[in-house]
């Protein structure tokens, strides 16, 4: 269980990223107008009420989690808002659609058959499963919507050929996956109240940004996603990650015209010819970093090495990550914070540095025009 202090560090990092979140939230409002043309073909995953038997929920208020902030602010790059308020992405080797009401997070999970993924390794898909997935039919749900109060989350029936998981045993595992991914064991409401009473800067903006929390991601996906972030932006990174998954990952299922794949394994990223493929996919100089980092992990460590870094102290984990090609202090801190259970990690870029100077320590990095290693460390300490 994380202490209150460690949980506060989570929120402080997000506070420093509020300018990015504000900009991203504004972009979402513009995008709402552009998704209208897709609404008809997306009806099978754009209404909880269109097929209540295929949806389950977790009690969760907006004050605890805002999907539109958390999934779009640059922590992860695999979720897309295909219709206003409905997010589809890949998590633990399966395809999910998430949405939320005032009191609940609603979710549905797509698979190739009516069975859950194997307990021994939920994140991998076997050849037999892939064969079924290629022939899986997309959901065909009615367009007619019903009122929220007509949703019956206790309805266990599965109708039609909708390739979804709707069993009680599966729902428990799915709920645990989401609770772990969003770290719902941490109460943001209590922490917000405490921080507002102790930090005037936080108090000034907190009410406008409820429910912002750090994700707990798969270490492999998180590492190689953030290797792609250097000199890049969210939109372009998202496209790169989608292309590498389509090219190297395993096919999961198809929803309408959209085909979903797993994130590539270390073995797939380290395979002969991967660097050339990534260059063809538009990765540029990052292609070498991705390929060489995967090979380094497999040759010098083991496939489970990244996950094992969750068990070592923060400085040791960061140093280990920085030994990989293409991994500097910021990428290492992002992975430590968002995948390796290191809440004391504070990723710093020029924007975070400027916020720290403006709101907390005006003389921070005085005389420096660029973010040096020393200024990076000092900024992180200020924000702790």
TrEMBL record:
CC terms in the record's Gene Ontology section: nucleus
InterPro entries named in the record: DNA_glycosylase, HhH-GPD_domain, HhH_base_excis_C, OGG_N, Oxidative_DNA_repair_enzyme
SMART domains: ENDO3c
KW DNA repair (keyword) present: yes
Molecular function as annotated in GO: class I DNA-(apurinic or apyrimidinic site) endonuclease activity; damaged DNA binding; oxidized purine nucleobase lesion DNA N-glycosylase activity
Record field: compositional bias (Basic and acidic residues): 116-134
Keywords: DNA damage, DNA repair, Glycosidase, Hydrolase, Lyase, Multifunctional enzyme, Nucleus
Ranges for region Disordered: 116-139
Segments forming domain HhH-GPD: 228-382
Gene Ontology biological process terms in this record: base-excision repair; nucleotide-excision repair
Task performed by this protein: DNA repair enzyme that incises DNA at 8-oxoG residues. Excises 7,8-dihydro-8-oxoguanine and 2,6-diamino-4-hydroxy-5-N-methylformamidopyrimidine (FAPY) from damaged DNA. Has a beta-lyase activity that nicks DNA 3' to the lesion.
Record-given protein name: N-glycosylase/DNA lyase
Native source organism of the sequence: Xenopus tropicalis
């Amino acid at each position: 269980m994380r202490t209150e202090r460690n949980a506060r560090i989570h929120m402080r990092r997000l506070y420093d990223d509020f300018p990015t979140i504000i900009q991203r939230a504004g972009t979402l409002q513009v995008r709402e107008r552009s998704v209208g043309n897709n609404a008809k073909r997306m009806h099978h995953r754009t209404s909880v009420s269109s097929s209540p038997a295929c949806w389950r929920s977790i009690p969760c208020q907006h004050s605890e989690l805002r999907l539109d902030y958390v999934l779009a602010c640059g922590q992860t790059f695999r979720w897309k808002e295909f219709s206003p308020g409905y997010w589809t992405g890949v998590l633990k080797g399966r395809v999910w659609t998430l949405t939320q009401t005032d009191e609940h997070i609603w979710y549905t999970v797509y698979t190739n058959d009516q069975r859950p993924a194997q307990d021994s390794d939920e994140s991998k898909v076997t050849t037999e499963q892939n064969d079924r997935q290629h022939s899986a039919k997309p959901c065909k749900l009615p367009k007619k919507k019903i009122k929220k109060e007509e949703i019956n989350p206790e309805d266990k029936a599965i109708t039609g050929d909708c390739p979804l998981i709707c069993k009680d045993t599966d729902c428990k595992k799915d709920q645990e996956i989401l609770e772990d991914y969003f770290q719902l064991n941490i109460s943001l409401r209590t922490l917000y109240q405490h921080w507002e009473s102790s930090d005037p800067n936080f108090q000034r903006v907190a009410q406008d940004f409820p429910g912002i929390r750090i994700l707990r991601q798969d270490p492999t996906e998180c590492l190689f996603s953030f290797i792609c972030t250097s000199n890049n932006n969210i939109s372009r990174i998202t496209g790169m990650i989608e292309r590498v998954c389509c090219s190297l990952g395993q096919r999961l299922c198809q929803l309408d015209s959209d085909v979903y794949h797993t994130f590539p394994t270390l073995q797939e990223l380290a395979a002969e010819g991967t660097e050339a493929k990534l260059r063809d996919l538009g990765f540029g100089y990052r292609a070498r970093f991705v390929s060489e980092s995967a090979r380094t992990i497999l040759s010098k460590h083991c496939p489970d090495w990244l996950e094992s870094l969750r068990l070592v102290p923060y400085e040791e984990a960061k140093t280990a990550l920085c030994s990989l090609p293409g991994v500097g202090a910021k990428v290492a801190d992002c992975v430590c914070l968002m995948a390796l259970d290191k809440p004391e990690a504070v990723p710093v870029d020029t924007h975070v540095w400027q916020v720290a100077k403006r709101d907390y320590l005006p003389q921070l990095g005085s005389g420096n025009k660029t973010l040096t290693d020393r200024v990076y460390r000092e900024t992180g300490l200020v924000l702790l």
